[in-house]
Amino acid sequence: MSFEPTKDKLAVRGDRTAIERAVTNLVQNAIDHGRRRPRPAPRSRRASGR
After folding, report:
1. 18: which DSSP letter?
2. CA–CA distance, 10 with 18 (Å, rounded to integer)
3. C-alpha distances in angstroms, 13 versus 16, 31, 45?
4. d(Cα 26, Cα 21) in Å, to the nearest integer?
5. Are the C-beta atoms of 24 and 18 separated by less than 8 Å?
6. pTM of the model
7. 46 phi and psi, to 5 degrees?
8. CA of residue 5 relative to chain centroid, distance
């Protein structure tokens, strides 16, 4: 994933604190839930006495 901001400013209407909180939550959720987690390796057991 990459992010390349434009050189132009973007005007957004809204509550600054709420917008910052929303963007922060989106990024944090992507970090928490978007990373690839390694799968557990398969295990095998030997039967006792065999």
Report:
1. H
2. 17
3. 8, 27, 61
4. 9
5. no
6. 0.50
7. -95, 140
8. 20
Scanning the structure block, which residue is given the tokens 């959720």?
A: 29
Q: How far apart, in whole angstroms, are the C-alpha atoms of residue 30 and residue 13?
A: 25
Residue range 5-49, pLDDT digits in tens: 778 887 888 999 999 999 999 989 888 888 676 667 777 777 665
DSSP category for residue 25: H
User: What b-and-e string marks burial along 13-40, b requiring 16 or more CB atoms within 10 Å of the CB?
Assistant: eeeeeeeeeeeeeeeeeeeeeeeeeeee
Q: Which amino acid is at 40?
A: P
